[in-house]
Amino acid sequence: MRSALSFGAAIAALAQLAQTRPVTQPTVEVSVVKRISGLFDKRSESGPKIGGANFPDPSIIGYNNGWYAFATRTRGTNVHIQVAYSSDFSNWSIVKNSDGSQKDALPNLPSWVVPGAGSNTWAPDVSKLDDGTFVMYYSASTTADTTKHCVGAAKATQITGPYTPVSSQPLVCDLSVGGAIDASGFNDNGKRYLLWKVDGNSIGHGGACGNTVAPIVSTPIKVQALANDGITLQGSATTILDNLGASEEGIIEAPSLTHVNGLWILYFSGNCFTGSNYNVNYATSSSIIGPYTRAARPLFKSGDFGLSGPGGADIDRYGVNMLFHANYGSGRAMYQAQVSVNGKVVTA
Q: How far apart (Å, rounded) are the C-alpha atoms in residues 282 and 297?
C-alpha cells in the first residue's frame, strides 16, 4: 500500500526541497487528489510530453538551470539517440540541428555495434564528469552476436553531443549470460557507480520477452564502482536484485539509483515491456550493494492515472525529478513525475 502525505505536508515537503536542492525544481502540472485504499495521495505525474512523440527509456540530467532528456533511437530514422530539453521541467521539445533536423547525440557508432538499422541503440544515460565533460552509457546490438546487446560508453564536451565512442570494444558485455543493457551512472558525492541489467531473457526459453517458459533465466541488476573518468570499472560487479520468476515474467530491467537521507533507492521495471504488466517499481537498502527490499506496491503500474505499461524510469541525482515512458498511440511517450520519500516509502 502506498504511504500518503496530507496535502499540506506534501506542499511543505516540496517547499523544503526547493530550499535545499541545488538545481531548478519542476513545476507540478497536475494537482488532483486520488483516493487509494482509504488514503489521499497528491498526484505529480503529467504527460504525455513532446506532443506524445515516441521517446522511450528517457534519462534525465539537470544542467545549467535546465533539464535534458535522452532516449532510445527514433524508429524509421537514422537517429541513434534522441535528445529533448526543458527550461522548466514542464514544457519539453526535441533538440534539433541548425537546419531543423532532429539532433542525433550519438551520430557515429563504434565497430562493435551492428551497423545501420540493426544497431538497436537503446536506453542512453548521461552523467557530467568532474572535468566538465559528459559521458553517455548506451546499449546496442553487437557484431559478436547480433541477437544480443552490450553496453558502450561515449564522451562529449557539450551535453547534447555529439558523443564519440571511447573504445572499439563495449564497456560491459558478457554474452554467455545474455549480454547487457540499460546502463546508468550514479555519482554519490564523488563516488561513481555503474548499474546495468544482465539481459538473460535474450537466452530464455520462450514466451513474453523470451523468458516466461521454464526454466526462467536470471536477469540480475548489477552495480560496480567507476573511476572518476566514468569509463574505468573498478573492483568487481555485485548483483543487487533479480527477477521473481514467472510472476514477474522473468524480467527486471531499467535500473536507476539514488541516495536520499541515507537510504539507497533502486528504481527498476518489472515484466515484459510489450505488455500491460510493465511497471515502475523500486526497492530500498541501507547499503548500495544491498540487500534491497522491494516496495509493497509499484510506484506506477497500468491503470494508475490512466497509464498503460509505464516503465523505463530514470530519477535525477537528488531523488526528486523522474522521467519514464508509457504506451501512447503507436509508441511510448515520455511522462514526468516528482517523487517524495517518507521513511522507506516513495510516493508520486
A: 9
